[in-house]
Amino acid sequence: MTPFVAEILGTFLLMLLGNGVVANVVLNGTKGNNSGWIVITTGWALAVYVAVLVAGPHSGAHINPAVTVSLAVAGLFEWALVPTYIAGQMIGAMLGGLVVYIMHKKHYETTEDAGGIAATFCTAPAIRNTPLNFLSELIGTFVLLIAVFYIAGPELTMPNGDEVAFGLGSLGALPVALVVWAIGLCLGGPTGYAINPARDLGPRIVHSLIPFKNKATDWRYSWIPVLGPIAGGTIAALLFLQLS
Q1: Taking residues 97-113, what's their average pLDDT?
Q2: Is residue 240 within 8 Å of 74, Cβ to Cβ?
């Protein structure tokens, strides 16, 4: 499996399971309807576990453009590989969002809440405040990346023998899942903790293309879960460089 394919598959699994748990909790008529925030945060943590388990040996399991960019900023990943990784992440995220929709199609048809439907694809603020919403995404991603930098070291060897920088995979799947679980439980309330540009933007594009009766894609907000995580990860990378 090439790193590009691994990033597609890993991010697909992340979105299939992560947005799948949101659909299970939010959409009408599911077995898990109204089961709450603990179920959602646990589901997302386990989604990360599965994604890292599969993609880690082949790409380092970045599965997140903020991770890819931050590692490059820290000098631990080649800038030349960044576009390929991000392209794979976006493709995987869009495919994951699409499959969640197909699987839950009948439940979408019985759900009238436009915001709830959108939540199964992308994030939205609990209280709309642009500076604080941006800060929430920045802080959440800072925590994710600072954990990555201080738990792992470069250890991924490519098929051609070149060593490339680590990603989430080199931490081991379980520690990464626990970090994401902690972020969701402790910091996820204000914005739904995208902490991953592809996780939000890819499915948001899919949502915009599906002819829902009640549409709430909210493109006005869409830049926050993209630029907030990039900023948070970059700050973590710069701090790591200063302290290392």
Answers
A1: 97
A2: yes
